Amino acid sequence: MFDRVIIGNLRAWAQGQEHKPLVLRGARQVGKTSAVNIFAQEFDHYIYLNLELEEDAVLFANDLAIEELIQAIFFAKNIHRNAGRTLLFIDEIQNSPQAVAMLRYFFESAPDLYVIGAGSLLEVMIGKQQISFPVGRVQYLFMYPLTFAEFLAALSEDQALAAYNTVPLPAYAQEKMLKLFHQYTMLGGMPEVIKIFARSRDLLDLRPVYQGLLSSYLDDVSKYARNSTMIEVIRHAVESSPYEAGKRIRFQGFGKSNYKSREMGEALKTLQRAQLIHLLYPTTACELPLIPDKKRAPKLLFLDTGLMNYYVGLQKYFYTIKDLHSTYGGLLAEHITGQELLALDMESPNRFSFWVKEKRQSNAEVDFLLPHNQHAIPLEVKAGKTGTLKSLHEFIDLARHPYAVRLYAGPLQTTSTQTPKGTPYTLLSLPYFLVGKIYDYIAWMKWE
Questions:
Q1: Are 317 and 371 contained in the same domain?
Q2: Full DSSP string of 349-361
């Protein structure tokens, strides 16, 4: 097991005056249970319940009052209550609606306990409304695959991690950081993949891990689907999503199929609830709030760029490329950027968007919009050292602030410039491996 950023969030939750029961959400195999196991070392006692096991599930099946339930849990695990701080982790909580319902009573009647719930199919059960969490009585944290910073820590790249956390980045670190980020983009951030790679450094050892992950997601399809017909539709959506990742998609005929918009829309939204994909809808707004326009085609982000690379057969090319823009039409650079942006906010996911202006005369699209204070900051991913910024300029001409970010393979630099129409603005050119530190660099730039 290796440390994860979310452990800091868990620590902050536990130190809060009002630590409501915490529900840890995220796709299967992103490391939720491992993170809680690491965090549990900071407590005097740790009670782990797995509600896939009958002996643990039965504790919630008898409709006990909250105090009796707590006594039954401590008795079953042979732990004395009031003998220090106790963390109670209820894993696979979606298997027991009674356990979900009891969370509110833990909050109201047992504030001395620290309670976390999680589950591999939790998201799907929430979406299918088979379980309903007590409103206002629980908190949520969302967990994702390893970020670039976590990847560096897992591989014991201590000097690179120190450089990454130094703002501004030392110029001498640029070349090595670029190579490491390409490696991270190739491998992705699934914990099991990184654990094995950290040990063997052999890409061949990872093939059965990638295949096992993808097979497990396909095996889950029957649990996602509401009927037998939808099983095949969702299976097609899983198998096609890696090929469509990073692109704007249409539900009708998705993945070169004959499926209609309604059934494929249902399938893709089910996968989004399972957090295997993220459907990022565009906005036409140039300022906050970034209201998504769900009548327009969304951009599809797959769970993990490494899984995507494995599935579509791209990994063998990574050792020959010098920048991400040279492979797969630049989609890899944009996709890994989206993956890093998702992990920036573990409390309220999908706060960012992308911008479009679609008219008969001309179309424009800015890769991402990031909320910052009262502004929507445009981010253009230009992985190579060159590239036009036509769409970015169109956004700046309409926006009420003079700030923009270009993510690319070049060095850190700032430029005071203007659009072809003469609108002045400040451009932060940021190496794309620093996207996870973007808020630190916005602060460094002293953008209001």
A1: no
A2: ----EEEEEE-SS
C-beta atoms surrounding 219 within 10 Å:
9
**In sequence order, what are the beta bridge partners of 89?**
48, 116
d(C-alpha 56, C-alpha 33), whole Å? 16
Q: How many CA atoms lie within 13 A of 152 on its CB side?
A: 22
The amino acid occupying position 440 is: D
- For residues 177 and 431, the answer to whether their CB atoms sit within 8 Å is yes
Contact 324, 339 (CB under 8 A): no
* pLDDT tens for each residue of 316-329: 776 666 666 556 66
Tell me: do 188 and 294 sit in the same domain. Answer: yes
pLDDT in tens, 154-175: 999 999 999 999 999 999 999 9
Alpha helix locations (H) across 293-410? 305-312, 331-342, 390-398
Tokens (6 digits) for 300: 């599809």
Q: How many CB atoms lie within 10 A of CB 208?
A: 11
Q: How many domains does the chain have?
A: 3
Strand ranges in 63-109 using DSSP code E only, listed in sequence order:
86-91
Name the domain boundary from 142, 169, 204: 142
**Distance, CA of 183 to chain centre:** 19
| Of 434, 431, 380, nearest in space to 148 by CA | 434
d(CA 115, CA 88): 5
Instruction: State both tokens at 89.
Output: 């982790």
Q: Do 224 and 261 share a domain, yes or no? A: yes
Direct distance between the N- and C-terminal alpha carbons of the chain, in angstroms, rounded to an integer: 40
Residue 319: predicted pLDDT: 67
pTM confidence score: 0.94
Residues 98 and 46 both lie in one domain: yes
Q: Which of 316, 342, 368 is the last residue of a domain?
A: 342
Q: Which domain holds residue 392?
A: 353-444
The confidence band for 133, taking pLDDT boundaries of 50, 70 and 90, is: confident
Domain contains 381: yes
Tens of pLDDT, residues 9-65: 999 999 988 889 999 999 999 999 999 999 999 999 999 999 999 999 999 998 899
What are 368's two structure tokens?
A: 């991402």
Same domain, 87 and 200: no
Rounded Cα distance, 234 and 260, in Å: 13
* Nearest one of 20, 52, 24, 19 to 38, comparing CA atoms: 24
